[in-house]
From TrEMBL:
SUPFAM superfamilies: Ribosomal protein L10-like. Part of the ribosomal stalk of the 50S ribosomal subunit. The N-terminus interacts with L11 and the large rRNA to form the base of the stalk. The C-terminus forms an elongated spine to which L12 dimers bind in a sequential fashion forming a multimeric L10(L12)X complex. The keyword rRNA-binding applies. This is Large ribosomal subunit protein uL10. Belongs to the universal ribosomal protein uL10 family. GO terms for molecular function: large ribosomal subunit rRNA binding; structural constituent of ribosome. The keyword RNA-binding applies.
């Protein structure tokens, strides 16, 4: 069933709204996936704040026009699932994990920071630590000098108390 012009315009407008905050986008061929598999994929994508949509390539091309994602146009052939997200690593991990689980999901390519990337680059991107892990590492690195200073300052009174306890024990004996 084909969409009417007004419905097509709504789809394009909605896609453009999703692309405003996105830093990366990926397309993959989904031919042969069951409805249950696609539902699992979409549910996982929603948990990770990844927008996933199956849309006609012509409508997707219209939505991508005038954005940094225009370089994706040559990839838009055949039945594709389109996804966009603010976190490129979460997007890459989602697709590579599900491509391993479901043989029929084949990553075609994507866009990262306005440059087209292939499936191998998406796989490499998925191996990077997530944003939360990187923030935790940064916080740990920033807190290391402070915690070292606190331990050092705490050692002086502790050593004094241990010395007094040793003197007390020595006099008691």
């Amino acid at each position: 069933m084909s969409l009417k012009l007004a419905e097509k315009e709504q789809v394009v407008t909605a896609l453009q709204a999703k692309l405003i905050g996105a830093q990366a986008a990926v397309v993959a061929e989904y031919r042969g996936l069951t409805v249950a598999q696609m539902t699992v994929f979409r549910a996982e994508a929603q948990k990770q704040s990844v927008h996933v949509q199956v849309v006609k390539n012509t409508l997707l091309k219209r939505a991508l026009a005038g954005t940094s994602f225009t370089v994706m146009d040559p990839l838009l052939k055949g039945p594709l699932v389109f996804a966009a997200a603010e976190d490129p690593v979460a997007l890459a991990k989602l697709f590579t994990d599900h491509a391993k689980r479901f043989d029929k999901l084949v990553i075609t390519g994507g866009v990262l920071s306005g440059k087209q990337i292939d499936a191998a680059a998406i796989t490499q991107l998925s191996k990077m630590p997530s944003r939360e892990e990187l923030l935790a590492r940064l916080l740990g690195t920033m807190l290391a000098p402070v915690s070292g200073l606190v331990r050092t300052l705490n050692e002086v009174p502790s050593r004094f108390v241990r010395t007094l306890a040793a003197v007390r024990d020595q006099r008691a004996a």
